[in-house]
Amino acid sequence: MPGERENLDSDRPTKKAKVSAAINGASKDKDMDNPYLAHMYAPSIALSASQDLFAGLTRHQTTTAQAQQAEDGPLNPFTGTQLSRQYFDILRKRRDLPVHAQRDEFLRLYQENQILVFVGETGSGKTTQIPQFVLYDEKPFETGKKVACTQPRRVAAMSVAKRVADEMDVVLGEEVGYNIRFENNTSSKTLLQYMTDGMLLREAMNDPNLSRYSCIILDEAHERTLATDILMGLLKEVARRRPDLKIVVMSATLDAQKFQRYFGVKENDYNAPLLAVPGRTHPVEIFYTPEPERDYVEAALRTVLQIHGSEPEGDILLFLTGEEEIEEACKRLRAEGDEMQREYDTGPLKVYALYGTLPPNQQQRIFDPAPPPARSGGKPGRKVVVSTNIAETSLTIDGIVYVVDPGFSKQKVYNPRIRVESLLVSPISKASAQQRAGRAGRTRPGKCFRLYTEDAFKKELIDQTYPEILRSNLASTVLELKKLGIDDLVHFDFMDPPAPETMMRALEELNYLACLDDEGDLTTLGRMASEYPLDPALAVMLISSSEFQCASEILSITALLSVPQIFVRPPHKRKEADAAKAQFAHSDGDHLTMLNVYHAFKSQESGASQRWCLDNFLSFRSLTSADNVRNQLKVIMEKQEIDMKTTPFNDRNYYNNIRQALCAGFFMQVAKKMSTGKTYKTVKDNQDVLLHPSTVLGQESEWVLYNEFVLTTKNYIRTVTSVKPEWLMDIAPNYYDIDSFEKGEIKTALVRTAEKIARKAKLDKRTQK
Amino acid sequence: MTMPSTAPNSRVTKPSSSSSSSSRLPFTTDSEDEEDAFSNLAARHKPSAKVLPPVEPKSLSRPPTMVARPSVTNPTHKTVARNTEDDEDDDYMSMTVADPTAAETPLQRLKRQKVEASMRGHPLSKAELAEQEKLKRDLGLATSILNNTSSKGLKMMKAMGYSTGSALGKAVPTPTGVTDAKDTRRLEPIKPIVRESRMGIGHESDLKRKFGDLNPAGGEGSVTKRQELSPESYRNRLTQEAQQRRYEAQIFAAQSICEKLVAQDPPDSYNGTSKKSKEGTSEEGEGVNEPGSEKQAEAAPERDFFNEKPTFTQIKQINLIYRGLLYRRAVSDLKACLKKKEQDSLTSSKSSYVPNPSLPKYNATGEFSQDDKIALGTESEEVVTEQELEDQELEEFEKREAKDRLDEIVRYLRSQWRYCFWCKSRYATDEEMDRECPGLTEEDHD
């Protein structure tokens, strides 16, 4: 899935060093800037001044008093410079945080145990403070080993690192840094590193003992992302091999027992120790509707406006499911809010949207304070944030007093039986509902309006949200695990093991892609593919592209498929947007259309491209990001010495070569048109599918290859390109083995194709003679 | 057009070009015969497919009303059902030739070809396609791929020590003292559920509780619920459900006819004659009122039904034979009415936000004013109580087997109006009916 891949620059340290040295002709200094080599130059991390400031402290024996003394300055214990005024202002606030009261207890447990489970509700300060507590006790400049704190989201890793750098009065990127996909803001000085969980997992693939770290803090473990789940299983094993490695698992929910048991020892009936810090929250009053709602969006809007009209000052947070729904709701709320202000003299209502794909500067706007009264003495203004479940745990918006919770969120679900992966609007879990309610009590006692009955809450909501590992295609995870050296995947200690069929499908697909041999061992191709932070199908396509003389083009397409949608289609300008897209349309399909866009984008003068994107209904952000991804992937390809030579553009096989190369990765995602009409059928799973309306492809293509099979109210295949059955049978004879097909239209067509191929071969032979 | 090969499976060998090409790519090295995940499944199904007609979603997906609409008199729908296993296939010709057991008389072939031509001529409607898509999806989602023993993925897992039917991972350590700790490890993948409306949580189950599952022909929910079935029994059940739906559609058709005939020709004019055909009425027994006694109760209100909507109380007076039809119509009217009210209230209640600044749905006592109730659409002015909605007699009747009910309605039509549901015609005299009409059942009319 685009956007979920992390760390494109996780090459093996030594190799990367060679590459960069070769490219830049750089000296040792250059190497030292490379964070992957930091451990090789460990002693240089320490600054002579700072060592004195820590003089009285013994590693793993520090106390709160000692640490506080060091914190109180006047010199910065980490840099030896004078501490700023701002530092002391923040320090006062930090000492007020709930976690601070338990610093002693934390240190004692931390020093006595290898693994510790820490539960702190949102607002306890755990994400910013615990890593700093650890830092004073670990003294990383002594060991040369860093402290890592993982976050499920890029934005969180970035913003928390910024905050902590301020708290420690250091420059972001030096002592405190962050490392997220396409952005490594760390240096050889870095002692504390915030990073995404996926990033750490990638690092583990090349450094199985995570030897650069002395402590790993897994934050937001309750979110149970795929990477966090795998990391937990991995860290359990690493902890056994490395007794000096400390692990802190931090969770925001009270379901900590599961973590305790998981990190405990079964035989001894020993559970990992737990430290719980109460959050600083105010009571939240919960209201249920007396009757189930017929339309949750309507009900939500009604409730928001009623709160605005009748409740005292305080901002509102409304949870909806996706971009479209949120934008629609915002539009209507703005209109209604203005009308209310005009007609009934309510305070002004400011409405903000919040969702993942929103540009960061717009995301920042949600932190703007509520608007002032329209006139002096008038009613106070109010802010409404309409958000996806981003605002549930990861983002904290101060000033929220009212929460409106319709009880839904979009969740990814993958089903291995028909190989469909979709974002579906699903009821949330009880845990999620509690989390949402909690957002109302951040500043003062609040209210949460649940748009369902209490009975429905009890009976229809599941207890915990399904962890991502149960809802994902595991092909890339299995490849990662294999690369991590885990051979017995069946008995790998998953916290929540995936369904056997999901694992089976992943292994099978990797076998068809020739990443795993029949014994389940990594092949050379598999080893190469695992170096890319991509789905195996994309990685294999990329690696084999040189055989079709179109590596450069496939590289562009891969990058374009790895970023959010490049076409913009604003609701009020659909026609114009479609017309703009039509300029780039390639009759053979969407992949080639995207490639046309990219080529046009690159031919713009650098200053004009943003304007050009706007005029052509393209996302500048996505295209720039694709460009970035492309560069990152190119480095890996070059390292693997993949031939980048391409077919000349005016060669008549230019596009055919690209289409064939697409088949090399996506031969399992093919559908054939049925004789009965518009429907297509997926080649092996017997599913009727329709071309997504966004496609540029006409209805006349017999065989199409698709990037995604999604479920909405209909079965859709999205991003499609027409292909030929001859190519498929040629490129993937194992998958297109005719005997393995069920009797039907597809088999018949394949039989005919095989006959055609045979005839042509015979003919060729004859002409050769 | 290429000639259809007589035996596609046997004649086709691997194209020679494929083996030569395998050297081109790094990942086509293992050339052992690869079996697809579904091929084995398919093989397992083959024998059963011969015994019972394979479930061809296409045939199911035809709305039952289409096949049994009373005005349509041709009996082809039966043939359609019999032959649909072919119409998915381009080369049905080769298949029938290849299978010597399927000896066809020229007449049968003519008939079949006609049907097939007409199938091709009438592309499926959007709704039919959607239903077919959904059925295939549900079938796919209900079929475990672990049955596919030839899958290399499964073989690899077996090599790692996996045994079919068990979960992955390590068993969760059980804390001492707790004996009933559940093993929460998943055996089945999570099923994707598509929500087609913006109904709030609990609304659907609330509707079911209020109105019951009044639409057995719809069968929407029933297909999605049970998923742990073997493919065979799943197919069997689909066949049965299709049959049920056909019966329900025929019942609907028969009831409609009944309603019309009552309007044209109230049953009292046949009072005398209906008694004659003893075997027709005797079995009606407890369920159906004697035609004579129902005369007064029925005739008066029924005539008006075509002009105005009956109340639920009135409906309870109607002959059980076709009361269900009117009841369902009334319920759907009621639902539509409620829905409309709510939509009205959504737009109209806007003005009530501020003048009356209280949250109607969340006030302290949990009670709300009548105004609010109406505005929120939870209560309509025409109040229909649950008691009125309840109709025990009808429930009893509807509980009976669909076939049984259909037979009864057919007999009733015959006895009251000498109308044969299968001939789709009315006879002037009993003698004519005896002579012209082949019998009581659908098979007799084949």
Automatic annotation (TrEMBL), chain A:
What processes does the entry annotate via GO biological process terms? spliceosomal complex disassembly
Q: What is the first-listed, main subcellular location in coarse terms?
A: nucleus
Q: What are the protein's UniProt keywords?
A: ATP-binding, Helicase, Hydrolase, mRNA processing, mRNA splicing, Nucleotide-binding, Nucleus
Q: Where in the cell is it found?
A: Nucleus
Biased composition regions of type Basic and acidic residues, renumbered to the chain = 1-14
Q: State the superkingdom.
A: Eukaryota
Matching SUPFAM superfamilies: P-loop containing nucleoside triphosphate hydrolases (SSF52540)
PROSITE patterns (UniProt xref): DEAH_ATP_HELICASE (PS00690), HELICASE_ATP_BIND_1 (PS51192), HELICASE_CTER (PS51194)
The ranges of region (Disordered) come to 1-34
Q: Does the keyword RNA-binding apply?
A: no
| Function, as annotated | Pre-mRNA processing factor involved in disassembly of spliceosomes after the release of mature mRNA.
Protein name as catalogued: RNA helicase
TrEMBL record, chain B:
Which PROSITE patterns would you find in this protein's record? G_PATCH
- Where does the source fall among the domains of life? Eukaryota
**What residue spans carry the region label Disordered?**
1-92, 208-241, 263-308, 346-365
Q: Which InterPro entries does this UniProt record tie to the protein?
A: DUF4187, G_patch_dom, GPATCH11
Task: Give residue spans, biased composition: Basic and acidic residues.
Answer: 292-307
Q: Quote the Pfam families the UniProt record gives.
A: DUF4187, G-patch
G-patch domain location is 149-206
Provide ranges: composition bias, Polar residues: 1-15, 346-355
One GO cellular-component annotation of the UniProt record comes to: kinetochore
Q: Which GO terms describe its molecular function?
A: nucleic acid binding
The entry's protein name is: G-patch domain-containing protein
Please tell me the species this chain comes from.
Arthrobotrys flagrans (Nematode-trapping fungus)
What high-level taxonomic lineage is stated for the organism?
Eukaryota, Fungi, Dikarya, Ascomycota, Pezizomycotina
